[in-house]
Amino acid sequence: MGVGVAGAIFGQAMLYHHAAPFVAIFSLMVWPKRRHWYAPLMLGGLAGTLLAAGWLSAVVLLAWGLVVPLPWYRPGWQFLRWPLLALGAAGLFLAGHAGTSYTLIVAALVAAGSILLFFLLSRELERVLVGDVDRRTLVLALASLGCLIAGLAGYQIFDVNPSLFFGALVMLSATAIQGPAGGAVAGATLGVTLALRGGSADVMVGILVAGGFLAGWLGTKHWRWASVGLVAGVLLYAVFIQMPSPLKPFWVSMAGAAAVFQAVPDSVIAIARRWAESFAGVNARDLLGERMTKIADVMREMARAFRVDEEIQAPETQLVQSVVESVCKKCSLYRSCWEDEFYRSYRGLMDLSAKAEDAVVTDEDLEGDLARRCIRPDAVAHATNLAMNREKERANFALRIKESRALAELQLTGLAQLVAEMAQDVQATPTVKRRRWRVEPLGYRVGVAKRPRRGGVISGDSELICDLSPTRVVFGISDGMGVGPRAAWESGAAMSLLEQLLMAGFSQPLAVRAVNSTLLLRSVDDHFATLDLLLLDQEARQMEIVKVAASPTFIRRRGHVFEVRGHSLPVGIVQDVAIDPITQPVEPGDVVVMVTDGVMEDDQRSGEARLKRFLEQMPVGDPEMMAEALLSFMLGDSQDGRDDALVMVIVIGAPSSVAPYAEQADNGAVPEWQRITPISLRRG
Q1: Which of 252, 268, 383, 571 has the most CB atoms less than 10 A away?
Q2: 432 within 8 A of 127, measured Cβ to Cβ
């Protein structure tokens, strides 16, 4: 009903007594987005055009409206909407009028202006739907209101002109929110809109700009004074410059709008001002992204500082100096050995030091001139052994320092890369996400079954079920290195960190890279875990799957089972993990099965085939029972194997519910992997 009324108003808009193209512009915007609005908008537009411009313009609009679906008939034809709009706008303007050179030029300008307005409004609508708005949004919203006010100009209720009444309310709102500039712009827009219908442009534009400016100037003192300013500005212009015509409807409409505006509560104006200020404000996400980028740069500079090696004196030189200081300088033959025969003495100690690297030396190991001249060979040998031991300790210590510095450089570089990726993710994510269409969200039910290895008590496999928003939920399983408590800690820590990152709004690929960096930086030993994630968008009816060294995911749809695979190393092994998200549509009745490799431990290929056959024949019921049945079937009579095993079953299309184990975790129960760790890693 409302769409049809709007179409009728747009249809009555005129451009110097010619039909305006507003119905064509807005109907072309409605068709690809809300097709159920198209028919009432066109019917209302036809009625309005028939009343305002005559039957010939209505016929042109009807013929044009029947051709509108053509650009969407085939995927590559959407470029046709541009010439289609130009022909429709020019045809409406020329219908019923002589095709003189002047009217043809004006029609071409009208067609070009229609294309420009359609482009701006369509682009702004796309930005509004994702929450990306600024002052341009306000300007184009005012232009849309101007199109509506142009259609109202043909009405008059008693002595009230609806276009002037609603236009004055728009002016007063703009002055209260944006001050004199807002009032003047709104007044000029309203004046031009009314003048294009066929009135006197200089009178309408001038009088309304004057009223809007004075309303904005007084509105800076207090917003309620804007009404006084509007009436005063219009009165001054009418008295000193030119009277509007017709006089009585003009004054009644303006005074009525001023009176209605006075009844608006203060809280509404305060909210409107904050909303308008948000358009010009700096995006907090951009500021956060810039700060995170700077932090990443600082970390990189710190990493470079660890690359500088200290200049250390050669070890053999230090060793010779130590022996000379402790023994030779106290000997009576010091001048003879180290001034007259420096080179031979130095070479003798160097040869002795070389022997000391492999074994303890004695006075018998001295050779050549040094052995013949030295009167304290036993002291020299003893000092050489002591110096060599100290040098070996110093070398080992320097090596440990170098390794620590290299590790610190690696850790800082990894953290810098992670922070930089987070900054990019923050800046790339829209502040507010809104869906274009409201689709009934799909429900789900989920169940999990798991077994420890044969003879084990703790399962090394962990699971994750986390609601990120009312319509987005993530499911995950992880298999830690090995079995038992250590594997449980690895996989559980990965799941816990993933949950916190995803809840913070980061994407799945970035969250996986963050977990990988954390496991790499935590220890120099090899500790890794597989990750198998599924992000279900219940409203968009699709799922994003991220697999890191995980077993295939099995999807049963309409009785057939297919697999989704991924190829990458486990997290915690290499610095860069290849993340390639896989997007799949979701239908009501789908069954998704996620497993760890322990479920198919004997033979991967034959195990996958057995699971697919069993899943095809399994009746859909309680997901907890389905998971237990799958696990029992795959493990056989022993009910356990050489590795930990876990099965997660997700049934799509049923009312949302979580299996009992997850409900217990939400009620405060400690997850299995945390019971074996001394410190809780997940925030309670």
Answers
A1: 571
A2: no
Buried b (16+ CB within 10 A) or exposed e, 185-223: bbbbbbbbbbbbbebeeebbbbbbbbbbbbbbbbbeeeb
Whether omega for the bond prior to residue 246 falls within 30 degrees of 0, making it cis, is yes
- Rounded CA-CA distance 511/27 in Å is 43
Residue 375 burial by CB count (10 A; 0-12/13-18/19+): exposed, middle or buried? exposed
State how far the Cα of 266 lies from the Cα of 116, in Å rounded to an integer: 38
What CA–CA distances, in Å, run from 164 to 3, 38, 106? 22, 28, 27
- Tokens 């341009």 belong to which residue? 136
Tokens of 244: 């509007």
**Could you give the CA distance from residue 249 to residue 321 in angstroms, rounded to a whole number?**
109
DSSP category for residue 32: T
Give residue limits of the domains in the chain: 1-132, 156-281, 298-432, 444-675
Task: Give the CATH architecture of domain 444-675.
Answer: 4-Layer Sandwich (3.60)
Residue identified by tokens 């045809």 is: 91
Which runs of consecutive H residues, i.e. helices, occur in 31-134?
A: 38-53, 55-67, 81-94, 101-129
Query: By C-alpha distance, which of 108, 80, 8 is closest to 48?
Result: 8
30 Cβ partners below 8 Å, 6+ apart?
Answer: 37, 38, 41
- Predicted confidence (pLDDT) per residue in 384-434, tens digit: 888 888 888 888 877 777 766 666 666 567 667 766 766 676 666 554 444
Residues 6+ apart with CB under 8 A from 249: 156, 159, 160, 161, 164
10 Å CB burial of residue 668 (0-12, 13-18, 19+) is: exposed
Instruction: Print the SS3 string covering 119-152.
Output: HHHHHHHHHHHCCCCCHHHHHHHHHHHHHHHHHH
The pair of structure tokens assigned to 121 is 């409004």
* SS3 at position 445: strand
pTM over 0.70: no
Give 365: exposed, middle or buried? Use CB within 10 Å, 0-12, 13-18, 19+. middle
417 in Cβ contact with 517 (< 8 Å): yes
Buried b (16+ CB within 10 A) or exposed e, 308-333: eeeeeeebeeebbebbbebbbeebee
Structure tokens at 296: 């990443």
Task: Give buried/exposed letters for 520-556 (b at 16+ CB in 10 A, else e).
Answer: bbeeeeebbbbbbbbbbbbbbbebbbbbbbbbbbbbb
Residue 56 in contact with residue 92, Cβ under 8 Å? Answer: no
Specify which residues 563 forms β-bridges with.
Answer: 554
